[in-house]
Amino acid sequence: MLGLTLMERNQLADATIVFERVRESTVGSTSLDSVIAWDATVNLAHSYSLNRQWSEAAAAYAACLATTPVRVFSISCCPTMIQLRRADLGHWLARARYGSSDNRAASHALAASIHLRPTDRIFRSHHVQITKPVAR
User: Fold this and answer.
1) Cβ 23 vs Cβ 41: under 8 Å
2) pTM of the model
C-alpha cells in the first residue's frame, strides 16, 4: 500500500525501493507469499515504466507473464480472469519493449494480447502504431 501511495505522489524512486523490498521479503514457500511477490513485481514493473526504465520494466513484466499465480482465497479464480490479466500484462510488456526500441518484440507481445482478447480495440490500435513504417 505504501508503494502505491508513493507512486500516486510521484515519488517513483521511493516506490521502486518499496516494491523491490516487498518482492524480496515475500519470496517464500507459501502460495500466498507467491501472490504477494507477483503483485509486487507487477507494481515494480509499473514504477520502472513510469521512470522510463524500459528494459527493467520489460524484464519484470516478462517474469510475471512466465508465472501467473493461482489465488488461494475462497473465491476460485476462473480461467477467463487469468486470461484477461495475462492480456493486460502482454500489453504492458509491449509498451515497455516499444519504449526500449524493440518494435519486433513489442509487436509479438501485442499479438499475444490480441489473441487473448481479440475484441480489444486499444490493443489493435497500438499494434497498428507499432507496425506502421516510419516516414522519412
Assistant:
1) yes
2) 0.80
CA distance 91 to 102: 14
Residue-level pLDDT at 5 = 86
Angle 79-85-90 (CA atoms, 0-180°, nearest 5)? 125
Residue 73 has pLDDT above 50, yes or no: no
Residue type, 67: T
47 close to 9: Cβ distance less than 8 angstroms: no
Residue among 93, 79, 83 nearest 120 (CA): 83
How would DSSP label each residue in 10-48? T-HHHHHHHHHHHHHHH-SSSHHHHHHHHHHHHHHHHHH
Cell of 108: 509479438
> Torsion angle of alpha carbons 21, 26, 32, 37, nearest 10°?
50
CA 12/CA 5 separation, integer angstroms: 10
What pLDDT does residue 114 have? 92
What distance in Å separates the CA atoms of residue 20 and residue 53, rounded to the nearest whole number? 15
Element spanning 78, H or E: none
Measured distance CA(136)–CA(13) in Å, rounded: 37
